[in-house]
Amino acid sequence: MSRRHKEDTVTTQDAFSNPVFRLGYGTQAPIEATQYPLTRMTDNYALLNALYRGNWVVQNVVDTIPADMLRAWFTLGGDVPPERMDALDRAMRRTQIRERLKKGLCWGRLYGGAAGLLLIRGQEDLSEPLDLSTILPGAFHGLYILDRWSGITPDMELVSDPADPDLDLPAWYSVTNAQGQTVARVHHSRVIRFIGRQPPFLEAAAELYWGESEIEAIYDDLRKHDNVSHNMANLTFRANMDYRKVKNLEQMLSVGGTAQQKRFWDAMQAQSVIRSNFALQLVDMDDEIHNTQFTFTGLKDVYDAMCLDLCGASHIPATKLFGRSPAGLNATGESDLQNYNDYIDGLRESVLRPILERLLPVLQMSAWGEVPDDVDIIFPPLSTPTAAELSKIAKEKTETVLAVFQAGLIDKGTALQELKKQSGETGLFDSIADEEIDAGAGVTWQDVTALKDPLAGIPEEDASPFAYPAVDVLTMDYKGQPMEKNGRFTFGKLSGERRSPLKRPTAGGKMSVTEARRVSSGILTDHPRWRPGETHNYEYGSYKYRIVVKGPGSYTFIHRKRLR
Q: Cα(164)–Cα(380) distance, rounded to whole angstroms?
């Protein structure tokens, strides 16, 4: 670029401005006078305490989300024996972990920061890094919760190890007593942090690496809500107002004598007493009394707008924050609740999971004596389906697995494994053993549906189940099947080997084993999706059969009737 072009270069700023109508940047419009000063209200400890103790909306904002984050708690994924789960549950109940975590989350949201100290018997030197191998059985005594104003202060030295989850956070914390004296210096591995909203790095440094109070973000909307609410309450005193016309009132009050004004006020007071006691108003013949009533139309919409602003600022729907029922035609509140549950799920993953991942190994060492590698934290769904919804979910997922299995895309072992995975959501199939899954490896749908019972579900009296050779109905050789001249097979008696009829009589006459095989083959070919326990009618040849399905290729014949 030439020197001339360099000298002509000027700095420009893009903005809209219309000085004639006082619109946009740099004009005299009221909106252009708006400013957003940096207040750092999180540092105002007295104000935060007053708001939490005296305002129920603030209490709901602080307490609701931690309660919902811990409502469904968590489960452990992996091969954990039931006796170990019982031991872990007893350890958590004994140390009141759930209540302590809720307390830490609430104080972190209110004050912007709180900490939980890991209390382990036999480890009085808190300045040493936490070593899990030194935790003895039953040595964990829980969490000691301190908010940022109650005696815990981060040191300025930060963690510099890239592999440490506390990177760029304080490496040490000082615990002080009521007199301000330091009583302990705690290593960061023994501290569980609870913070509110995460500020940028420089603002976090200004807050001593704590967070921002949730109340600071909603404070302006909270003041608007409270002022509108109080003004609406005061307006109710003016809902019904009486006024009286008095002749020459202005002259009497301005130039009238003191005695005249006193007589006027005495008369007004006497009329007020009469109206209060007897609901009767007495006035002079020349005076007039009028009544004015106010309907306050539109105030509800204004108040609802203030409530919605608070809901948006706090990420809590009105049904939970204000205890309201869903408003509007056909409103159920399900979409609002679903959005809220999605937000809570995000907090469980980003906030609660790191806390549990630091706390769980300590609990495992105290309850089990070891930390398994294959144990994972699983958060159950927040919304609990009804019995009908749960049955529908289980049916649809089971049919999906069955359809994939029948299509030959997976084997029996994989199908059983997929069904067992659903146990956490549907409560079904949790009793499927790993041995059954291993035994089903490589077994296809064709292997399962192949006819293994030659009697087709019709047991012969006093006969062994292995009295007849196993025959695959799909590959039976119908030797001697009658055939027309055009090559089409017809129904009729088969030639070849014949067995004596079964001893068990059925309606319509006895039924031979050969006939049972032939009819069973037809049923399996025509209706492969009939399920066990179902009862059906089936026409084959000259007969109509009444059958009960025992399984794929296995049927019980309960009735046989010749067709007309």
A: 28
The span from the first CA to the last CA of the chain, in angstroms, equals 105
pLDDT in tens, 112-148: 999 999 999 999 899 999 999 999 999 999 999 999 9
CA distance 171 to 177: 20
Cβ 542 vs Cβ 562: under 8 Å: yes
**Rounded CA gap, 45 and 150, in Å?**
11
Those residues of the chain that have pLDDT short of 70 are 1-13, 276-279, 327-332, 450-510
Q: Closest by alpha carbon to 464, among 453, 477, 474?
A: 453
For 228, which DSSP code? H
How many whole angstroms separate alpha carbon 188 and alpha carbon 193?
9
What does each C-alpha distance from 419 to 273, 274, 425 come to in angstroms?
81, 82, 11
Give the span between the Cα atoms of 108 and 111, in whole angstroms.
Answer: 6
- 338-387 pLDDT, tens digit per residue, is 899 999 999 999 999 999 999 999 999 999 999 998 899 999 989 877 88
Provide the angle, in degrees to the nearest 10, between the axes of the packed helices 214-235 and 56-71.
130
Contacts 24+ apart (CB under 8 A), 200-208: 201/168, 206/40, 207/40, 207/42, 207/43, 207/112, 207/113, 208/113, 208/148, 208/153, 208/154
Question: What is the reported pLDDT for 278?
Answer: 66
Q: Evaluate the CA torsion angle 17, 22, 28, 34 in order and state its sign.
A: negative
Chain centroid offset of residue 134 CA: 37
pLDDT digits (tens, 9 = 90+) for 252-295: 888 888 888 898 888 888 878 877 666 677 777 777 777 788 77
Contacts of 90 (CB under 8 A, 6+ apart): 367
Look up residue 266 and give its two tokens. Answer: 């005495």
Q: To 10 degrees, what angle do helices 299-314 and 214-235 make?
A: 170
- The pLDDT, as a whole number, for residue 330 is 52
Q: Which residues pair with 191 in a beta bridge?
A: 117
The three-state secondary structure class of 103 is helix
Q: What count of other Cβ atoms lies within 10 Å of the Cβ of residue 214?
A: 25
Place of tokens 């108003």: 281
Between CA 205 and CA 40 the distance in angstroms is 13
CB distance 138 to 169 below 8 Å:
no
Task: Give the span between the Cα atoms of 297 and 464, in whole angstroms.
Answer: 88
The one-letter amino acid at 286: D
Confidence (pLDDT) at 490: 57
Summarised one tens digit per residue, pLDDT across range 219-234 is: 999 999 999 999 999 8
Instruction: Looking at 9-133, list the stretches that DSSP marks H as alpha helix, in order from N- to C-terminal side.
Output: 45-54, 56-71, 82-95, 97-111
Q: Residue 18 pairs with which residues in a beta bridge?
A: 23
- The predicted pLDDT at position 431 comes to 84
Q: What span, in angstroms and rounded, lies between the C-alpha atoms of 448 and 533?
A: 17
How far, in Å, CA of 116 to CA of 63, rounded?
A: 18
Determine what percent of the chain falls in helix, strand and coil, rounding each to the nearest 5: 45, 15, 40
Alpha helix ranges (H) inside 165-279: 201-206, 214-235, 249-255, 258-278
